[in-house]
Amino acid sequence: MARRSKMRDLVFKIIFQNEFRKDVVDAVLQEVLSKEKSDSIRKDVERYVRGIYSHIDSIDQKISSCLENWTLERLSSVDRCVLRLGTYELLYEPDVPVQVTLDEAIELAKRYGTDNSGKFVNGVLDRLAKQYVPEEKWRL
Hints:
Elements: H1 3-20, H2 25-33, H3 39-54, H4 56-65, H5 77-92, H6 98-112, H7 117-132, H8 135-138
Family: Belongs to the NusB family.
GO cellular component, one term: cytosol
GO biological process, one term: DNA-templated transcription termination
């Protein structure tokens, strides 16, 4: 698994675990990162997780605005967490091309979600990107 793919996988696992645990996210973050040897991956994971939770209200609002006939609360935990990660990356990581974010989110959804998760995540993130992501990021 490539370095950035591994990093996204760890971020997904942390925010997914945080859906079910009563700990603060810092406890989950430290527990997962204690097993990671790469300093650069640990730093990126921490930046992403802290970024997701510091912007969670805006991220959830943007996801909700792109859902058709669904609410954020009705989504499976896997789909919700993948969408949060993808939305964060689209909006707050300027050096990551839109297509890379979409491809990586779809792969996470396929790996951890249902048979339909990849298509669902693709549709929502594509709609979100077209609505909220600046045009210059599409050209990276």
